[in-house]
Write a sequence for this structure.
């Protein structure tokens, strides 16, 4: 049995070829090599069912409502436990085990701060308080993200070993502070670079036992993904927008309006123009949502296909980002039409599609990972990121 | 195996389950047998090794449908088994996971799931229809008058800055008449508020202003536009409108609206699970509908106040009905375009309500 965990973890700040030569007796690079080690592919499977999860979800939702929200952390943990517990790899499932009591305390803190911020917005005398809270949130955001990832990792167990996240606070301020500021200042041009920094920070600081994650990805593919997203937005916008404007002009001409002396004020107040603007607005929002969903799915796929663990395990994702977009959009429609009752079905459907196409390839047996002691963790970052819906990409 | 605990007491109450053991130091899975016997928890690996713990040293996660059970031990090792029946028996015997075990049983049947749908729906409906308005009313009632004054000042400031209102073009004599009518109404209503009537031009820019309108601010400031005064065919109609606005003041509808919006946003946050979804389009429509419902309830309540005043003074509510109908006709005629959020049935219902109040007084 070889020990796949490197004695000294590769430096996450130095991207480059993965450090694979550390294990005695295993020469060459993975996966193609002259003395190719045996590569085993383990498919990931998901055994959750929509009916079973619906019952779990609705009972826990009812308990949350009846207890005026006190039970909410327990419900959240249980929902997540269901998904982790039904995700299998090589005959073993994952386990999520967060302390709901800890989460409750953090939820209360975050909820109180949010309430104070909303209330103080209403009055001029206390307006500064909401500004102060927003500023504090912006300053603490990278730290909260790091805390949240620490919490999620340390509460995830597989094959008796915990995941861990040891990203430094400084690293979080670079990836989630400086990179986001640069993305904003550059008018979005640096945004794909920020995604790259963030994903690298996430993967390179993730540990399973003592085996460290390594992100082999690059910046350029992130820009390609972003370009495809923008292309979709512009292309679909033109495809829908040009005929719409032509139709509007034709309609006006047909009604006897003289285009040269068109009274824009009357046009602006007329109901048809208003309806037109409203419909265009809704379509634009929907297109924007679709583009974002594509970018999210494509980034996730790219990151998963370029992540490895301890130099011996690679993740592979086969899902199609466009299919994920379709699933997300149709899920949203189903949830809207059923007043939210389709949420469990939608979650299971999306999760199943993402996971069924996923596999893990390893040159060593999956039972050869070594454990490492974990540290204490705070639930505050988790509560803040979850309540404020900060997308962490996974 | 070495008899550390004396003779093997796999007695009648002993339970055993097959599963896997992880030592917490590596990811290797060891096939193992769990032996549960009284206060003792033993994990047997093959024929050689056996680990011993007391029941109180064992952490047992609550059951989830279809997920294997896991027991973890103080040294970081754990045992996982699909044998839920055995673990459940041990769980019951040692009084573990009583609450979440109960939750697990509720999750097991479609009957309770349907019940949960009904309970969730009923509680949400009750909260939105009765709970939030009642809480908002309470909160508005205990809000100090000093806060109300701030609202009045700030709202007027905004309206003037945005050029929505300007000084009135009515003659001094006409203004004095209306002020005297307002003093009559506000004296009748009473309360700790600083009542004042502001007559303003509602279309200072020639168009695009608020037009024929009247509204009340929380601390008793009532604004009525010249356009509404022009629309009225008698002062009784205007007095009716003023009584309606004063009703908004005494019932603190303005402030209650602020609290209701806050309560609704909390509900949406709890339902969607985050704050940002509350601002999305999907959430905006139901929120707007619910808020429309709240404001219709407030209008009805203020109409009742106005009707009480008018029946006392004039023995009829007809002037208010008349001006409401005229306002409706004017809005319907001028707009022309498709009005998605039409107030039309609302106005008809209000006139009918005023008529009924008058009939009831006879």
């Amino acid at each position: 049995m070889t020990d796949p965990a490197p004695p000294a973890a590769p430096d996450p700040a130095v991207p480059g070829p993965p450090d694979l030569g550390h294990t005695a007796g295993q020469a060459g690079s993975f996966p193609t090599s002259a003395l190719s080690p045996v590569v085993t592919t383990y498919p990931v499977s998901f055994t959750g069912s929509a009916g079973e999860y619906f019952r779990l979800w609705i009972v826990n939702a009812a308990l949350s409502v009846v207890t005026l929200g006190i039970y909410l952390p327990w419900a959240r943990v249980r929902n997540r436990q269901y998904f982790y517990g039904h995700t299998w790899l090589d005959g073993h499932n994952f386990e999520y085990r967060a302390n709901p009591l800890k989460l409750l305390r953090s939820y209360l803190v975050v909820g109180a701060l949010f309430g104070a911020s909303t209330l103080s917005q209403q009055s001029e005398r206390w307006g500064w308080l909401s500004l102060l809270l927003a500023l504090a949130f912006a300053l603490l955001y990278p730290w909260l993200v790091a805390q949240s990832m620490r919490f999620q990792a340390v509460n995830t167990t597989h094959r008796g070993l915990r995941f861990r996240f040891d990203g430094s606070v400084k690293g979080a301020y670079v990836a989630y502070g400086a990179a986001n500021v640069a993305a904003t200042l550059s008018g979005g041009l640096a945004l794909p670079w920020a995604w790259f920094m963030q994903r690298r920070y996430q993967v390179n600081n993730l540990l399973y036992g003592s085996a460290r994650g390594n992100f082999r990805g690059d910046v350029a593919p992130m820009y390609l993904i972003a370009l495809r997203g923008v292309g979709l937005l512009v292309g679909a916008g033109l495809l829908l927008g040009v005929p719409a404007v032509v139709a509007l002009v034709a309609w006006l001409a047909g009604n006897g309006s003289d285009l040269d002396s068109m009274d824009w004020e009357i046009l602006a107040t007329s109901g048809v123009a208003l309806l037109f603007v409203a419909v265009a607005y809704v379509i634009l929002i929907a297109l924007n949502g679709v583009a974002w969903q594509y970018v999210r799915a494509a980034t996730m796929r790219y990151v998963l296909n370029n992540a490895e663990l301890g130099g011996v395990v690679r993740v592979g994702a086969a899902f199609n980002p466009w299919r994920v977009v379709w699933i997300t959009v149709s899920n949203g429609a189903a949830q809207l039409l059923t007043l939210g009752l389709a949420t469990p079905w939608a979650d299971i459907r999306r999760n199943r599609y993402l996971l069924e196409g996923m596999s893990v390839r390893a040159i060593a047996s999956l039972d050869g990972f070594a454990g490492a002691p974990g540290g204490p963790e705070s639930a505050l970052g988790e509560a803040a990121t979850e309540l404020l819906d900060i997308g962490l990409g996974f | 195996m070495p008899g550390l605990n004396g003779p093997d007491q796999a007695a009648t109450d002993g339970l055993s389950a097959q599963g896997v053991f992880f030592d917490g130091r590596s990811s290797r899975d060891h096939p193992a047998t769990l032996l549960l016997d009284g206060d003792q928890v033993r994990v047997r690996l093959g024929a050689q090794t056996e680990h011993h713990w007391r029941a109180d040293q064992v952490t047992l996660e609550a059951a989830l449908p279809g997920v294997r059970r896991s027991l973890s031990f103080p040294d970081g090792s754990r045992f996982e088994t699909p044998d839920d029946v055995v673990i459940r028996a041990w769980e019951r015997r040692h009084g573990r996971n009583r609450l979440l075990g109960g939750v697990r049983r509720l999750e097991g049947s479609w009957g309770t799931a349907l019940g949960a749908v009904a309970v969730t729906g009923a509680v949400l409906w009750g909260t939105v229809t009765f709970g939030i308005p009642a809480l908002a009313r309470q909160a508005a009632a205990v809000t100090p008058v000093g806060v109300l004054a701030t609202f009045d000042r700030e709202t007027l400031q905004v309206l003037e800055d945005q050029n929505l209102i300007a000084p009135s073009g009515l003659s001094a004599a006409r203004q004095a008449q209306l002020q005297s009518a307002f003093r009559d109404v506000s004296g009748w209503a009473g309360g700790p508020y600083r009542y004042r009537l502001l007559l303003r031009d509602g279309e200072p820019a020639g168009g695009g202003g608020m037009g024929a309108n009247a509204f009340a601010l929380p601390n008793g400031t009532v604004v009525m536009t010249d356009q509404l005064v022009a629309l009225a065919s008698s002062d009784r109609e205007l007095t009716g409108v003023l009584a309606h606005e004063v009703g908004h003041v005494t019932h603190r509808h303005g402030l209650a609206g602020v609290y209701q919006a806050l309560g609704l946003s909390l509900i949406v946050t709890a339902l969607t699970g985050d704050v940002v979804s509350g601002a999305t389009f999907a959430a905006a429509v139901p929120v707007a509908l619910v808020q429309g419902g709240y404001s219709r309830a407030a209008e009805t309540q203020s109409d009742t106040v106005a009707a009480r005043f008018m029946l006392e003074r004039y023995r009829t509510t007809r002037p208010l009905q008349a001006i409401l109908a005229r306002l409706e006709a004017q809005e319907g005629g001028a707009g022309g375009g498709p009005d998605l959020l039409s107030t039309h049935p609302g106005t008809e219902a209000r006139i009918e309500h005023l008529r009924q109040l008058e009939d009831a007084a006879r």
Observations:
- Residues 1-34, 387-394 of chain A have pLDDT under 50 and may be disordered.
